[in-house]
Amino acid sequence: MPKLKSKKDISGIETSGKILKAVLDELEKAAIPSTKLAFLDRLAFDLIKSYEAKPAFLNYRPEGAKKAFPASICASLGPVVVHGIPDGRALEKGDILKIDAGVNYKGYFSDSARTVIVGNECSAEEKKLVKATEEALYAGIEEVIPGNRLGDIGYAISSVADKYGVSVVDGLAGHGVGFAPHEDPLVFNVGRKGTGSLIEEGMVLALEPMFSLGYPDILELPDGSFKTVDGSVTAHFEHTVAATKSGPRILTS
Ligand code: MG
Ligand code: MG
């Protein structure tokens, strides 16, 4: 059962989310050619600590995962969709980097991700993919309204993928968030209008469209990251959003 959040909880998660936004802004600025992924991770750790918060992903072991995650951010390159472990690899112009991070501030958890085009140079197809994925996130967010259903979110997200001719990655989904990094319910990136669980006031959801330029199929690598089977490039954007009486409230922007 999803845990509903009070106004006080939502403002706590928003404080956590504002820290996360500030951290992601700095990471995005630092994600330029020759920056090492491990440097971005260290920077994230130091910045999150400077706000007297904790990196929510560090040592976190999601249900079903073989090992705890060893870093403060997920840094996923090219065909890797999520859960990439930041290592000594240096970024190159044209890399499509997904940075995903979580913050725990006084027990309130936020989750957000962005795709960065390193050096701001990539193919027109890749630019389209990144644009589509970001647009889909906001289309999904518009559906986070009490009385709507989770299928409305999935429908909105997948409709944007269809419009751009890109694939919704199979087998990965958004989720509830707020008192823990991952909570019920799962929020699928595909769905049918008017189906699925009811969205209630006080639900806080991490919406996270993940799209690929090729086939939707993914596989898990031994390090716990997920990549496309066909090696096609992926993009990922994520915000933590509250369903309130006055509509969707983005808590990580
Ligand atoms: Mg995330
Ligand atoms: Mg998430």
Question: Overview of this structure, please?
Answer:
The chain is an alpha+beta fold. It has a single domain (7-250), classed as Creatine Amidinohydrolase, CATH 3.90.230. It contains four helices and 15 strands. The protein has helices at residues 7-30, 37-50, 124-141, 150-164, and strands at residues 54-55, 73-77, 80-82, 96-105, 108-117, 167-168, 174-176, 183-187, 204-207, 210-212, 218-220, 226-228, 234-236, 239-244, 247-250. A five-stranded antiparallel sheet has the order 8-7-9-14-15. Strands 1, 2, 4 and 5 form a four-stranded antiparallel sheet that branches. It has a three-stranded antiparallel sheet with strand order 3-12-11, with no helix packed on it. A hairpin with a 2-residue loop joins strand 14 (239-244) and strand 15. Helix 3 (124-141) packs antiparallel against helix 4.
For the largest sheet, list the strands in their spatial order: 8-7-9-14-15
pLDDT average, as an integer? 97
How many domain regions?
Answer: 1
CATH H-level superfamily title: Creatinase/methionine aminopeptidase superfamily
Low-pLDDT stretches are none
Q: Briefly, what CATH class? A: Alpha Beta
Through-space gap between termini = 27 Å
The DSSP helix count reads 4
**Backbone structural class:** alpha+beta
CATH topology: Creatine Amidinohydrolase
CATH structural architecture = Alpha-Beta Complex
Ligands in the model, by name, code or SMILES, are: magnesium ion
**Tally of strands:** 15
